[in-house]
Write a structure and sequence with these properties.
Strand order of the largest sheet: 1-2
Structural class: mainly alpha
Shape: elongated
Radius of gyration: 17 Å
Number of helices: 8
Distance between the termini: 30 Å
């Protein structure tokens, strides 16, 4: 939160009042077992509305790796293996380990970390299906779509 507030002050000092400000702020933060509603609300309250008239918060519950596992067909398409069952638990690193294990079982190399596969998984995802499996993802997609449509 401290970094967000400092960053906003920096943006405000660079743009100032009446200047061309960004149209949309998209914030992403893991819920980390606190529940996406509470974490999202805390971030929304920290956003300076003088700078950002539109803000969308993505809050994977509990961790972003769970979003990567949200569409079993995307996992099959990208990794070539069946998607693992995704438990409803809140344990540190559980979903990171599950995603890593799935990638390794597919025989795919991990050069930096398991999230290097996220862009391909998201590109292959049916966001409707993934959102049904992960409500926090559905909320983010719906809010982002609405915000973008309001800017047209």
């Amino acid at each position: 939160m401290t970094e967000l507030k400092l960053w906003q002050r920096t943006v405000f000092s660079q743009y100032g009042v009446g200047q061309s400000l960004p149209d949309l702020l998209v914030l992403m933060i893991d819920a980390n077992c606190k529940g996406w509603t509470q974490v999202r609300r805390t971030l929304e309250e920290a956003v300076d509305s003088r700078i950002f008239g539109h803000c969308v918060v993505g809050c994977p519950d509990p961790h972003v790796e769970k979003w990567c596992l949200a569409d079993p067909q995307a996992i099959q398409e990208v990794l070539g293996v069946a998607a693992p069952p995704v438990p409803e638990k809140c344990e540190r690193h559980l979903y990171k380990q599950l995603l890593r294990q799935t990638i390794q079982e597919a025989g795919q190399p991990i050069l930096t970390n398991e999230m290097e596969y996220a862009p391909d998984l998201v590109a292959a995802m049916d966001l409707y299906r993934a959102g049904k499996n992960q409500p926090s993802l559905r909320h983010f997609v719906d809010e982002l779509r609405s915000a973008l449509q309001s800017l047209l």
